[in-house]
Specification:
Layout (H helix, E strand, L loop, with lengths): L17 E7 L2 H9 L4 E9 L8 H5 L6 E8 L6 H11 L7 E2 L2 E2 L5 E5 L2 H18 L6 E4 L3 E3 L7 H4 L4 H17 L9
Parallel strand pairs: 6-7
Antiparallel strand pairs: 1-3, 1-6, 2-3, 2-8, 4-5
Length: 192
């Protein structure tokens, strides 16, 4: 089976493209989850949110750049609603733990939504408000305007597809993908 990244669809005149940048722990997980979804045009792992003028894996891993591991997601809102993206995002990671996802600990693993439109901001705020009612104001996900994205090094791209047999992929990423497939089966591409 070809990696999903190589199956990019050509843009049609009717296709609309919107971008959101999400941090939900390790970007290997976030990338793999969102590549599964219908209406997602592209997913690119990288770094965002910090004040440092550069970002490499080594720099960000130290936890002192202010950058977060993220996935830049381009999607067609006519095929995948922003609220559906949020549903998958919040189901695929724990938004109640500050700067931590499982064994991945540090500010680079923060839960954050970098919005690119006012509509995304408002929808994210409403979504989190509803979750906080359900979970007692425990959601720590930040909502912040998107400023700059630094692409991850090539060896981080399509990580799950290239390393499915690696322990991290089997123990951490695969269960997240299974959870998303079960809970959001109508949103998942048939070729996953």
């Amino acid at each position: 089976m070809e990696p999903l990244a190589s199956k990019s669809r050509p843009e049609s005149p009717l296709e609309v493209k919107e971008t959101v940048v999400l941090g939900g722990g390790c970007f290997w997980c976030t990338e793999a989850v969102f590549k599964m979804l219908k209406g997602v045009i592209s997913v690119e792992p990288g770094y965002a949110g910090g004040e440092a003028r550069t970002a490499t894996y080594e720099q960000v891993s130290r936890g002192d750049t202010g950058h977060v591991e993220v996935a830049k997601i381009e999607y067609d809102p006519n095929r995948l609603a922003f609220e559906e993206l949020l549903g998958v995002f919040f189901a695929a990671h724990d938004p109640t733990t500050l700067n931590r996802q499982g064994n991945d600990v540090g500010p680079q693993y923060a839960s954050v939504i970098f919005y690119t439109t006012e509509s995304q901001q408002k929808k994210a705020e409403n979504y989190i408000a509803a979750l906080n009612k359900r979970y007692g104001n425990r959601i720590v996900t930040k909502i912040t305007p998107f400023k700059e994205f630094f692409p991850a090094e090539n060896y981080h791209r399509n990580y799950y597809e290239a390393h499915k047999d690696a322990p991290y992929c089997e123990l951490v990423i695969a269960p997240k993908l299974e959870k998303v497939e079960e809970k959001f089966s109508g949103l998942v591409r048939e070729d996953t």
